[in-house]
Write a structure and sequence with these properties.
single chain; alpha/beta; Rossmann fold; 2 domains; 4-stranded antiparallel sheet; globular
Length: about 240
């Protein structure tokens, strides 16, 4: 059974259709890439999936549970969490305290939350910075902190919104390796990303949005060779 099903989802803002009749599903353990031009509706779809926006039409189901009408904290407790394109750590708190905020979605015990947070800092290789003030982190570490905080909620499905945006090649490679390691651990992931070489490396399947509609869906090679995708977004074939 699919872990996530998007069924004919549309989202309207006045007369503007940010998403229009989008449908696809995800299987447990896979990485789904979500790509498209700026303004294609990718982040809006993330918001509809995770409860930040109610879909205007259609249905989102996670592990067989209908999510329409649920709030983000309820979706999180069901096992789905997302990161944000613009990372905003709690600047005056330590790295560890930031991750504990995520862990407290799963436990009311500060001791357990601290242990869980340290586990996730090890996953993102920031265990040497637990007391560092989050506001002083460089962008690469802020991105990893965002992932660690999401992981501390113990998700079954992690949605990553441009987690490589603004990073240099070495930092991006760290994130790629982290995503692949999380896949080995069995975590299902959906990734919005503009780095096409990265998305082709990590994705099992890719959905392409354009002007709010699903333009294409398929494996990385199939998407890279799709003439409609090349014309609307890629501009040239991705090797």
């Amino acid at each position: 059974m699919a872990i996530l099903e998007i069924k004919h989802v549309s989202k309207f803002f006045g007369g503007l259709a940010a998403n229009s009749d989008v449908s696809f599903s995800m299987e447990q353990g896979m990485i789904m890439g979500l790509i498209g031009p700026n303004g294609a509706g990718k982040t809006t779809l993330f918001n509809c999936i995770t409860g930040y926006y109610p879909p205007s039409k259609g249905e989102v189901t996670f592990k067989g549970t209908r999510l329409n009408g649920l709030q983000p904290d309820q979706v999180c407790r069901l096992g789905m969490v997302r990161t944000w394109q613009k990372v905003r750590p709690l600047a005056k708190l330590s790295v560890l305290d930031n991750v504990m905020v995520g862990a407290l979605a799963r436990t009311s015990s500060l001791k357990v939350a601290r242990e869980l947070a340290m586990e996730q800092l090890k996953v993102v290789r920031m265990e040497h910075k637990p007391e560092f003030p989050a506001g002083g982190l460089p962008i690469g570490d802020r991105k990893k902190l965002e992932v660690a905080r999401a992981l501390a909620t113990k998700p079954e499905l992690l949605l990553l919104d441009e987690v490589m945006g603004g990073l240099n090649p070495a930092e991006s490679e760290e994130i790629i390796q982290l995503i692949l390691e999380l896949k080995k651990r069995g975590l299902t992931q959906m990734v919005i990303e503009h780095d096409m070489k990265a998305i082709m490396r990590i994705s099992d399947r890719i959905v392409v949005l354009n002007s709010g509609e699903k333009l294409a869906e398929g494996g990385p090679r199939e998407i890279a060779d799709n003439p409609d995708v090349i014309a609307a977004y890629l501009g040239e074939r991705v090797e």
